[in-house]
Amino acid sequence: MGSKLLKLLLILVLAFVMWGVYQTGVKLSTQKTPFLQNLIGKKKDQPVPTQASSGSAAEQNKTPQPAQEEQQPQPQGPSEPAPIMVRVFKMKPTDFRDFLPVMGTVKGKTEVELRFEVPGVIKKIYFKEGEKIRKSALIAYLVPDDAKLKLKYARNKFISAQAAYESSLKKYEINQKLFEVGAIIKSKMEEAALDARSAKAQVDTAKAEEDLAKNDFRKVFLYANKEGVMGPREAEEGEFVTSQDKMGTLFETFEVYIEVGIVERDINKVRLGQKASIYVDAYPNVVFEGTVDSVYPVIEGKSRTLTAKIKVDNKDGMLMPGMFSRAEISIADLKHVLIIPTSSIMQAGGGKILVPVIPKATLRTGEDGIQTGVVQIRRVVQGYATNDYVQVTQGLGEDDLVVIETQGELKDNAKVKIVGTEELGI
C-alpha cells in the first residue's frame, strides 16, 4: 500500500515538472529578449560576445545595430526624353537641271520619194542602198526609145512648119509689092497676109509640141534634187514602172531630226527651243546635241503620244535615218538654287508645305563627335519640283539642315541626334 502511494506521488511530481517546462518554452517562443533577438539576427558565422570581450558592461548589454541601414529611394521628377535619331540633308546652293527621257527614230531633214514622171521600163539604176548622192546626180533612167521618137517627130514637125511659114511670108512680101505698083487688087495682098499669120501659128504649135517632147525625154532620166543618202531600192532594172511606183527614197542627212513621242502627262513640259542630248547604240560614247524644232498639235489615237521633232546637226553623217535613239530633253535649267529631297516634305493640307529644319545655331557637338540640335517645323514656298527633288524659294537658308529620315515623331522644338548627313548628288 505504501509503495503504491509513493509511485503515484512521483508521477504527480514528474507531471508538474513537465508542465512547467512546457509553459517556459511557450513563453520563450512568444517573447524573446533583446539578447535572444540579437542572437537570432546574427549570422551563423558571427561569434556571440562574452564577458571576456573588450568594452564596458553597458556596451556589452547594449543592443548591437546593423552595420548599414537600408537607404530608402528618394522621389525624383519626370525624366527628360532622349533625343530622336535623324538623318539630315545639308543645304547648299547648286545648279539644278531636269531632263525628260524620250525615245524615237532618226529621220532625214527631208525624205524625197523618187518616182519617174512618165511610164516606161527601167534601163539602168546608178545607186546603191545607203550610198551618198550629190545634188543633180543621175540616179536611174528608162528605156528612151519611145521618147526619142516623139522628140524626133516633134522636131520634124516644127521644121516643116517653120519652112511653110517662111514660104508664106515671102509670098506676102511679093503680093505687097505688086499691090503697090497696082498689079493686083488689095484682097489678094490681104489673103497672102492671112496665110502668113496662119503659118506663124503652126510654127508656134510645132515648137510647143517639140518642147513637150523634150520635156518628156528629160523625164526618162531621174536626177537627185538635193544631196543626201539613198534609202532602200524598191524597183529593179527591166521593171515597168509608172508615176505611182516608187524607185526609192532620198534622205537629206546633213541635218536630221529625231522624231520622239511625248506621253500625254508630259506635254506641258516640252516647248520649242529646248535643248536635248541624243544617244544612239552605234556610238555609245558620243553625245549629239539638238534643239526641239517642232511639236505636232495632234495626239496619236492609239499610243496617246504627241510627236515632237529634235533638230540635230549631222555634217559628219554619223546619224543615219532609221536609227533607234534615246533623247533627254532639258526641261529645267536652274542656277544657284536651294534643292531638298521630296522625302523631307510634310504636307499640312490647304497647299501648305512644311519642312523639319535644324538651324545651325542649335547644333552642338558632343565628346563622341555626334551633333545634336533642335528641330523647327517651317513653312516653305515650293518652286520647280520633280519626283525626287523640290526647289525651295522661301523658308530655308544655306546653313540649315533638313531632316530626311527619323526614328521617331518630329515636333516643333524636339531635340534630335544627327546620325547621318547627305548632300545633293544629282
- What is the strand tally? 23
What coarse outline follows from CA principal-axis ratios?
A: rod-shaped
- Report the C-alpha radius of gyration, rounded: 58 Å
Q: Report the biggest beta sheet as strand number plus sense, adding barrel if it closes.
A: 6 strands, antiparallel, barrel
Major sheet strand order: 2-11-14-13-12-15
Which regions contain 5 or more consecutive residues with pLDDT less than 50? 32-71
Helix percentage range: 25-40%
Number of domains: 3
Q: What is the count of DSSP helices, taking H or I runs of 4+ residues?
A: 5
> Order of helices and strands, N to C?
HHHEEEEEEHHEEEEEEEEEEEEEEEEE
> Which whole number gives the mean pLDDT?
81
* Structural class estimated from helices and strands: alpha+beta
What's the end-to-end separation, in Å?
Answer: 129 Å
Strand content: 35-45%
List the helices and strands and how they pair.
Layout: H1 2-30, H2 34-41, H3 57-61, E1 84-90, E2 94-108, E3 111-114, E4 120-125, E5 132-133, E6 138-142, H4 145-181, H5 186-218, E7 221-223, E8 228-230, E9 240-241, E10 248-251, E11 255-263, E12 275-280, E13 283-299, E14 305-313, E15 324-341, E16 346-349, E17 352-358, E18 364-365, E19 371-374, E20 376-385, E21 389-394, E22 401-406, E23 415-422
